[in-house]
Amino acid sequence: MELDRVLKSWAVPKGPPRRSANKRLAVQVEDHPYAYKDFEGAIPEGEYGAGTAAKWDAGTYAAEGAHNLAESERSMRSGLRRGRVSFVLNGSKLRGTYSLVRLKSPKQWLLIKKHAKE
């Protein structure tokens, strides 16, 4: 997710949840420069993140309940500091409202797909 001119990133070993109320471990990794947003290719052995990198999804997001970009960014920053943030994804694969909730370890979060409102 782009925020403050970097890509905030989490590794989700079992893949993101697709059904409401499902939870997945999400391990926060270092921020990536925004210029990496379209990178795909092989990262050599011995280098950080070694292996194949592929763009899995693309789209937009906004903090849940935000009415404009500035409000969304403030809400995202605040939520990430507090350890609980909800956002709406509008990607080609992932759509809907999700939450990230930090666990006791500062880098471990739960990624939760929230129930769709009827």
In short:
The protein has 118 residues and is mainly β. Helices cover 12% and strands 44% of the residues. It has one helix and nine strands, in the order ββββββαβββ.
Read across the widest sheet, the strand sequence of neighbours is 1-2-3-9-8-7-6
Query: Shape, please?
Result: globular
State the end-to-end distance: 27 Å
Number of strands: 9
Largest beta-sheet details: 7 strands, antiparallel
Strand content: 35-45%
Structural domain tally: 1
Low-confidence stretches: none
Helicity level: 10-25%
| Rg, Cα atoms, Å | 14 Å
Q: Counting H and I runs of at least 4 residues, what is the number of helices?
A: 1
Subunit arrangement of the protein? single chain
